[in-house]
Amino acid sequence: MSTKFRCSAIIPYWMEIDGKKRNLNGRKFCIECSPFKSHNTSRTVRQDRLSVTEKKCTRCKKVKSVYEFYVKRKGIDYFHYCKLCSRDEIVERQRKLKQAAIKYKGGKCQECDYDRYAGALVFHHRDPNCHAEEHGKMNRSSN
User: How far apart are the C-alpha atoms of 31 and 10, rounded to whole Å?
Assistant: First the structure.
């Protein structure tokens, strides 16, 4: 039997390396791309993806320099939105969450019935002893 890797190389499941028979079945890269015991399994992919100089933002549809995109957490690729669109997306999401919370609480101030500008409304507890969790931490919950 043989296995095919991302680089299109085909080698057998078992191979003798350093005088010992080694199982290569679970590898993502061939021996040439990632030498045995070198632990550089993603370096080849990272180099290829990060060597690009321009990228198209999927939100604003503009081609921009890769320096205008955030790098993903593991450093393998760039985000799909540019930094400006990422910021705008976050602001829009936060506004939608606040609008939903305002609607849930009645759509207006519970003390004076003010309902013109959502940015002027603030959530707080009348009795601080019944305060369960900070508002800033509530939107980070994993639902």
Answer: 10
